[in-house]
Amino acid sequence: MQEYRIGVIAPYLDGEYYGRLLPYIQQAIRERRSRLFAVQVADDYLGIDSLEEPIAVGLIDAWIVVLPSASSAVFETLDAGGKPFVSIGFPSPIPAGHSVLVENRSGMRAAVEHLIEHGHKRIAFMGNPGQYDLHERYEGYMQALAEHGLPFDERLVVQTEDNLMSGGEKAALELLDRGADFTAIAAATDFNALGAIDGLQARGYRVPRDYAVTGFDDIGQSAMNYPSLTTVRQPLEALAREAVSRTFEMLSGRPAPGETTYVPTSLVVRSSCSCSERSLFRTADEFDRYLVGLSQMRRSIHAITYNSHRMTKGLINATRDERVDFSKLFWNLAHWGCLALWETDEDGNRQLVVRQSFTKRGDPVPAVGTSCSFEYFPPLETLPPGTLPGGEDVVVIHPIHSELQNWGYVALVGPLGSNHLAANDLYRHSFTILAVALERELLFNRVRSIAEKLEIVSNTTNDGIWDWNLETGRIDWNIRAHKILSPSAAKLTSDPRSVVKLVHPEDRRTMWEAFERARSGVDRQPIRLELRIAEGEEKREHPIWVHLAGDLIRGTSGAADRVIGSITDITEKKINEAKITQLAYWDSLTGLPNRLLFKEQLKEAMEERNKDGLKLAVMMIDLDRFKIVNDTLGHQTGDLLLQLAAAKLQECVGALGIVARFAGDEFIVLLSRIEGAEEINRVADRMLDMLTKPFVLEGQEFYLSASIGACLYPCDAPDVDSLIRYSDLAMYYSKENGGNRLKVYTPALSSKRVERFNMETGLRYAMERGELALNFQPQVSLASGKVYGAETLIRWSSSDGKTIQPGEFIPLAEETGLIIPIGQWVLEQACRACRRWIHAGMPSLVISVNISALQFQQDNFPDIVRKVLKDTGIAPHNLCLEITEHTAVQDMEHSIRMLGQLVEIGVKIAIDDFGMGQSSLYWLKKLPVHIVKIDPSFIRNLMEDSDDDAIAKAVIEMSHSLGLSVTAEGVETESQLQRLQQLQCDRIQGFFTGRPMTSEQFVAYFLEIANW
């Protein structure tokens, strides 16, 4: 006979149901020379009632599952494995599985019909219909009522919280408390029935005289109870043998999958149903069985008492040391055990690792540290001989869980226990005790690690430690704390008031209040204070600063016991903070307040003026032509001059206000309390007069002047920023009108500046809002009449509907630096337009893009061009970059290097506006360019002005001699075109051949020219 390994998954292995069913299963498996692996999954403490992982799935040949004690994920794994599967007590969740079920409906129907025969018409039902077998019993109850024409009353149905006696007792009391009209109870389990009897008797009712009660299961206590319980007998031996028989048939491939086997029940009539006239013992054998049952119950009670002592002793021995010794726990009859915990390796793979094992018979055990896949746990090669086919031992596997984590699994080997009379035998608790002990061990190691670190920190840190015992009122200070508080530490005692006395008088109240809140426990926030130590200050340049921290420690009752904390010397930190504050609020060169401090002082002055109704003034002062001093004499001399000017300005303002350095050679003045503009004029006159007098530095005289702008509050502006901005506007007006004067702000000054500001603001968001657009002006070859390409021109339609000309916003973009992102956007969009043209059948076109001086100065500009070409997918020869003559000759060395890199990429280079600058043939010869573009100013009067004609002719001939082509811009008449043809100009662009147009219009234009 072939050996098989049969896995049984069950919530428990003991008690009236599992404790009697499992030995029958084991016996049937042993008879077939195979091995039983029992997986017990339930944990009453954590509420776990199903297996979450398919443990040992690789070892097992077939599975028997008692009640739905595995998760859906485990069932899916078992189904995917394709191994025989038999369920006991519930329909198989696996389509190919087989179910062995008790005839629950007919059994309950027989019990209810028996009560009806006694004349009962108001029969209550108690049980938990959420379980499959109990739901079937509920259906049997309903069928019996219906078949006998009795009405269903939902008030007579009570759902129990469990299947035990306590659940039945509560359900009976609930029926009584409801005032339900009933004369009999049909309980779904015997334990519920026995509990119901206890509940009824506790209220003074007699069973069966006042109420009849029936149960279901026929557990051992049913016959020995008083009164004895009428019940339905579950044939557990037949149930077990049917399940094992079907399992082995499936292993041999005989039975059809998906079938169900039903095992019949039988009604056992005793006295609880009012059959008291019947004799309790009809035969001598029945009386003998009764006495045997009493003897077994006595032995069971004795075993529970003795096992309780053994488990307590095992718990003490197992947890005596820091590390739990799981072999000393109460494992009942187990003589071999293995504890494997989940661990994760360096690659992140989770596996079981053997951490403890034991044997009582000298059998081999797996080595500590052995890794094992959970599908093949426990290792077969290490199991004792008693687990071999036909042996009496069973392998029990149990998951170890705690509230903290899933620890792993325990495998135990030994015979099944004989205590089936007591559900929840004490050895179950060992699994929970082991989990708690492992959790305690982990937490203990963490605490010890923390304590070791704290000890190291305490010995090596610069912090002092203090411990305030709130019960005794004493504070202990370590040596480091005494050193920090030195030289005041001599007066430091265990009295909390001693440290308070050492603190600066201005900080004492804050500290004492924090101590009082901590002591009372009212404030649960930690103590966090920065304090000055009073004694010894007169001997030091800076006071001793300390940071005092502490937190409350509460006892088990929740009351505050202690405050433990630290004290740190933060004197150096405070000195650095003062330096940082100095740097943050004061100008390092002149010693004046800086912009940040000035704005805070201005805000405070404005609040005061709001109260007294007076005015204040802000004056912005910019030293005229100061840049010349820096450029000619150097910044060191310039800095000395700024220091002298700052001193003079302070002298002029005096007690009337505050002078601050705003930026560079700009100063700002606050006249904090004035009556009107006359006082501004007087102060400004003093400043201008003072600055006209020579400043002498190293024997050399310097003369300065200033542009001054002023603004009044609250007349001119309502807030800090507006006051500064308007005084700045007035100052710029002074500077633009020659400088060395004062201008007081008027609203008229704002209009031009505001317009420029609005344009700048609008330009910053123009790309995001999609307000910028490109037009393209055709460039036509004079030799062939074909379209050579197009020059890209940018247009801006602002959000208010206005069209702003490039001549207005391009200079602003260059001044603000916005030309960099705008220029790159133009380059990208132009290249994308060219790609569309190429795809439309115009592959030879060249798109020309103007490059600003700022773009040209970027060292990474060639990289930008390469990326745009790559992203847009056009060839380098389709792109022409145009730079102005002025930009090209500004820095010849840079231009030669930059243009050389661009030419290496393969793009064309054109010199725009040629003839407007001071370049010569020599400079043009040195630049690596391809095209010269004649400025429109020479073309406009080409036919009327002989000088312009001569210039155009010279440029064309000179360029051709250098191998360059020429494009004439601004061609507006046919006569200009004809003259340029005579001069052998290569290309023209202008209104005569095409105005600027959209990309779509340009495509149509090209097709029209090509067809013509």
TrEMBL record:
Alphabetized Gene3D superfamilies for the sequence: 3.30.70.270, 3.40.50.2300, EAL domain, PAS domain
Listed A to Z, the keywords are: DNA-binding, Transcription, Transcription regulation
Q: Which residues form the GGDEF domain?
A: 614-747
Q: Where are the transmembrane segments?
A: none
**Domain PAC, residue spans:** 527-582
Q: Which SMART domains match?
A: EAL (SM00052), GGDEF (SM00267)
Matching Pfam families: EAL, GGDEF, Peripla_BP_3
Q: What residue stretches are annotated with the EAL domain?
A: 756-1010
Name recorded for this polypeptide? EAL domain-containing protein
Name its species: Cohnella cellulosilytica
